[in-house]
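Re: How this chain folds, sequence and tokenised backbone to follow
Notation: Tokens come from a learned vocabulary of local backbone shapes, not from coordinates.
Start of record: The labelled sequence and token lines come straight after this line.
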Amino acid sequence: MFYLGRHNSHERRYVDENYLFALLKRELEYPTGLAVREDSNVAIPHGDIKYELRESLVVIETEEPVLFRKMRGRDKQRLWIYFFLRYQGSEQIY
């Protein structure tokens, strides 16, 4: 799923070739899965702004849930919706 979000964005020149690596590295260190409701969880993965060429928001909804680490703790949750943020207004987004 990260590859899908990166692939279209790289082709359209929203991110550079290092974006995917930075996104995966950050997600391993600081997971972004959020429990919104019992049946509706989301993730908001984002990387370092130095790999983002333009601001954008990419929304991906999967047909089947994907296990994703929660923002707090090491538990995993089933997610269907992912918001990939690319915001250049600050040094880092938390």
In short: The two ends are 21 Å apart (CA to CA).
